[in-house]
Amino acid sequence: MATFNIWMNGRLVPQEQAVLPVNSAAVFYATNVFEGIRSYWSERDGEMYSFRLADHFARLRESMKMMRFTVPYSDDQLFEAVRTVVTGNELREDIHMHCVAYVGAPGLDATTQTGLYINPRKRPRVMEGNGLKCNVSSWTRTSDNAIPIRLKSGSNYQNGRLATLQSRADGYDQPIFLNRLGKVAEGSGATFFMVRKGRIVTPHSSSDILESITRTTLIEYICPQVLGMEVVERDIDRTELYVAEEAFFCGSGYEITPILSIDRFPLGAGDTVGPLTKRISSAYLDLVRGVDTRHPEWRTPTYKPVHV
Ligand SMILES: Cc1ncc(COP(=O)(O)O)c(C=O)c1O
After folding, report:
1. Is 257's C-beta closer than 6 angstroms to any atom of ligand 1?
2. CATH number of 6-121
């Protein structure tokens, strides 16, 4: 697979030069915070659109604040860094990138001063076939007072890793987490939505979930304005999962990924993607690529040079 140059602390470097010291907290404890961002190539516009960059940078800053990291770059500098990644690698294809702030960069205070890198990569779709076979994990989503999932640190993702490995060992594709109260939280790296009694439902933001940018896009724009349906944000019980008509994960990486069964209970017809999931998925892909031209402020052009 082709490798791309990585933007690290101010310049593009080949992958083998983008290294972290083995004795840094960043390597040993995964003391970092990060964002997973997608950029979409639009053939029609000859442009790469990075989706909701400003919101990703705002969330990165919130994670940094909670970790008491100092913020080494302004938003303008971060926009410029993403642009450099896209133009410097001549990217004209859909790309996923990790934007990572970490402690332990040479020459910086190892407790709080952060280095930053942006690593572009191809990211295949999460599923093969029509959708995922999920299970309700026996691992509990870490709670806000222990290891908060709202704080997007690489170290917090060990919770998702344990659950995903268990799911695979047990013959499923992906886990669904319950939180400490026994209510549905989310997937390992994605937000959970279901359709129940004709309504679109998702766990509320105090359910030990990441405050997902895709979730907000669905709640504030796609469901009400494209589909004409409001999203209900509430507690979801485990047993509701088994009788839902449809379910899907969403996220920058997952986009809209249908779920076909949970604990082997088929949802809807069981082997096909439900009608609302299909409509939400195509509306989302239209939006991120600019086929749906509304909300241009969410699509930062990162390919063509910007001349004033
Ligand atoms: C734990 C977790 N939940 C939800 C999401 C979806 O968030 P977003 O839509 O902001 O990508 C992600 C993706 O980063 C995640 O890692």
Report:
1. no
2. 3.30.470.10
Known catalytic membership, residue 65: no
- pLDDT of amino acid 2: 67
Domain with CATH 3.20.10.10 in the chain: 132-289
| Other C-beta atoms lying within 10 Å of the C-beta of residue 35 | 22
Q: How far apart (Å, rounded) are the C-alpha atoms in residues 134 and 249? A: 10
Q: Over the stretch 282-298, which tens digit does the pLDDT of each residue have?
A: 999 999 999 999 999 99
* Closest CA to ligand 1's atom 16: 189
Question: Taking residues 32-47, what's their average pLDDT?
Answer: 95
For 109, 180, 205, the CA distances from 166, given in Å and listed in that order, are 38, 19, 26
Assigned token pair, 25: 């907290």
pLDDT of residue 169: 98
Residue that is written with structure tokens 């026994």 in the block: 182
Q: Where in the chain is the domain with CATH 3.30.470.10?
A: 6-121
Return the CATH fold of 132-289: D-amino Acid Aminotransferase; Chain A, domain 2 (3.20.10)
Q: Say how far apart CA 95 and CA 119 lie, in whole Å.
A: 10
- The three-point CA angle 254-87-289 to 5° equals 40
